[in-house]
Amino acid sequence: METIAISKFKATCLALLDRVKKTGQPLVITKRGEPIAQVIPPEPLEAPEQTTFGCMAGTLEIVGDIVEPLGEDDWEALR
Predict the structure, then answer these.
(1) Is residue 52 part of a domain?
(2) Sequence-separated (6 or more) residues with CB below 8 Å from residue 27
(3) What digits encode the pLDDT tens for the residues 14-27?
């Protein structure tokens, strides 16, 4: 595990964070030789199986004519 002084970390923060992400190696930040923080890479994100858009595709079933009005015999509430 690599250690780095806080002053050097401050000067090269973005490059160091990119390196931690790229290599996966944690980084310990020290102040006057004592560790004060540890930078670790994030866990890999799991890709969703489907996106929100289109997730219900293929699940609709049209049973009858959806334009024609129902007659009185078709209403369950009138029975």
Answers:
(1) no
(2) 1, 2, 3, 4, 9, 16, 19, 20, 38, 39
(3) 999 999 999 999 99
